[in-house]
Amino acid sequence: MPTEKLKVSMNILKQRLKEEQQSTDSDWDLFLAFADFIAQFITSEMSEEEQREWRMRFDPQSSFEKMLEFILNEQHTAVKIITALVDELLTECGAKHKCAVKAKEARECGNQYFRNKQYEEALKHYSDAVALSPFVAFDSSSHDQSDESELSLALANRSAALFHLKRFRESLNDINKAVIFGYPFNRCHLLFARKILVLKALGTEDNEANKIVDEQMNEYINKRKSLPLNEIQHMQDLLRKTLKQNSVRNQCEKTSQQQQQQQQQKQLDTKVIEVNKFFANASSAVEVKQSVEKGRYVQAKRDICASEVLFDEKPFAHWLRPAFYKDFCSHCMKYLNNFHYPCKNCSTARYCSDECLNESWQHYHSYECAYLDALHYLSIGHLALRLLLKVGIENALKEAKFVRDKVEDATTSYNADYTSVLSLLDHRKSRSAQSLRSYAVGAAFIAFMSQKMNIIEYTSSEFIDFAALIFKHILQILCNTSSILFDELELQIGHQTIGPHLKIIGAAIYPSIAMLNHSCDTCVYPLFRGSEMIIKATNNVKAGEEITFNYGYHYRKISFKDRQQALKSQYYFTCECKLCEQRMENIEHAFRCPNCINGALIMNSDDSNYCTECGKSIGNVGLLRSSFAHCMLEISNAYQLFEIESNEAKDTLLKCLHRLNELVFSKHELLLEIHERLAKCYEREENYKQALKHWSHFYKICTAIRGSDDSNYDILNCLLNLSMLLLEEGKKSKNVKRMFECAEKARKYFNRAVLISDQLKGKEYQVLSSVETVTKSIELMPLVKSELSDIFGG
């Protein structure tokens, strides 16, 4: 067996994963490259006769079972190569077991940061120590120092870091766990003292806090019946002494309560007003319809208000990107913030609660625990396997036989169950024979790996049916999954935003949300609570209108040609939304046409291009792209200088602006960013005249892109800044006439801003799309109003 070739290729794939794991899709696409490689390798090892039959077998009209029968024949070359590769992968990617030595190293590293009062860094290392620590049964008959549990030490130290970070509930949890896992007797007074302080910080009365700890301490002592009385007395004395040295501050309690209240106030409304009885996870405001042209689609059953919740759905099955295993709960995908419940067996999976840990183990992790490192390479295949594990293999096979080739009638009732998943389109008949061959090989690989995971036996009569379901789900996942997003600003502002701060942390199948058709614009937007997806209306929607969802190809970001090709390639349809009927282009990303100067040069991914004004194209695309890439490097440097308020920032930004004006279309979004930063640079110098000039350019570009009647926070913020700067310019002039001229202009801008502000109230989508801008607008509004009141008297 040519295992050397396989080893070399596996190493190449692993290197690619390491280098690109932080990009948005490399680890997701790795399975496809992996499966394609195996298919090509198998072909190269076949005889000519086998190759002829191999090519004939993958007819898109054939069933999944027919295509797999040929591959899974034990005499076939494919089986020998796939099983050899599975063995090779599992040998190289063993389970990440617990290790007390590594746990101690992580804990001691955390101790160094803790001594330097770097509590956040200490917390990271303590959490790693918790994940690495073996789960050792506590021996209540011994209190010898050598029997101490590394897990109890890591938990206790983490509780201390959490206490200093005022994360009291999590600290309390770790204290209790540390006691359970046998925290050493000679130090337990520190733990119990900390617990009293934590309880008080959480609002527990002094007497009640002391009573709770006394009860736990007595229970702790009773489990150690062999302890001498003098040691028990000594521990109690130490506890009282420690409490005197660490009296809790009232401010600590107030801070904790205030933080909780603020967090509650910041939470967005994500509740469905009235649940739909016939459409699972959906609002009663929507319904499923069906037509020959559209297939199944969702439309408004009644008038819908902007920001109304239309769907609230937990995933049927999910996949967390390996790069984020440390950061997010392996089950519900909530952000862990360096606090987790560890798996009892591996050091990889981390959870936000005991509930998630137990549910995960029950549904899938008991099978995956020892194989997560190998599953890193199988993304789409991993999610396909999870779909079956969620239902149970036996139940999935029975259900698949019952509903084979039937489409669920979603117009009467749609339950978002496994029957619903099976009814999702897989586009098998539209795919090429070559792609089907690769996906079939990938499905066979997952099936043989499942045998190693003790999920199913190769000798089972249902092995081919099992592999066929994996095959079907792989194709469904390619065109029915949604990305799961996390917002880095969420911890600061209390809820998710819509903007550049979003990270793709995984993918999932949402059977109900999958009913939404695509539009290159959209009337809804997603929010996430971990992996739970909430869909809200962007604007008002009238009864009878279709509810659409953008599949990731927005008209403002991607050219018409690229959108059409991408949607056809992945989803097998030609988009006929209103924007595509108008051939709407991404002018905010267009270049400046070198032929007519004023036109928008639309550039496609294949380098084809045309000008929206003169219709001409250019030939030397490489030179233009190279110039733009060089300009982007300069802009990146300018932004860094701006952030640190360097004196060089303004001149660097001016050079970038000059270069951009030569390269890009007059409505390019980068011009807005440059003008805003330049305005702030001049404002820092109190050169209000120049600052006004750049805010005026900002306003002109913004209204040219979105229309003068459009109400959004970018325009609102610009108007408020213009108002404030005009007032400052008037004061600086020390000329009464000039001051009133500036004030009159400022009042006009402010009145326009007030109108926009009134229009935006309640439009949560606009708030979410530019949180930083909104914050500035809210701060500026009363300041400008106060200044104008002083001048005009109310």
What does this structure look like?
With 794 residues, this protein is mainly alpha-helical. Among the domains are: 1-75 and 316-509, no CATH class; 100-247, Serine Threonine Protein Phosphatase 5, Tetratricopeptide repeat; 711-794. Helices cover 56% and strands 8% of the residues. It is built from 31 helices and 15 strands. The strands form six sheets. The protein has a three-stranded antiparallel beta sheet, with no helix packed on it. It has a three-stranded antiparallel beta sheet with strand order 4-8-7. A hairpin with a 2-residue loop joins β10 and β11 (532-537). The longest helix is centred in the C-terminal third of the chain and has 25 residues, at 736-760. The radius of gyration is 31 Å and the shape is globular. The relative contact order is 0.07. Mean pLDDT is 84; it is low at 142-147, 248-266 and 762-772. Residues 329-369 form the MYND-type domain. GO terms for molecular function: histone deacetylase binding; N-methyltransferase activity; protein methyltransferase activity; S-adenosylmethionine-dependent methyltransferase activity; zinc ion binding. Its main location: cytoplasm. Residues 284-552 form the SET domain. It catalyses: L-lysyl-[protein] + S-adenosyl-L-methionine = N(6)-methyl-L-lysyl-[protein] + S-adenosyl-L-homocysteine + H(+).
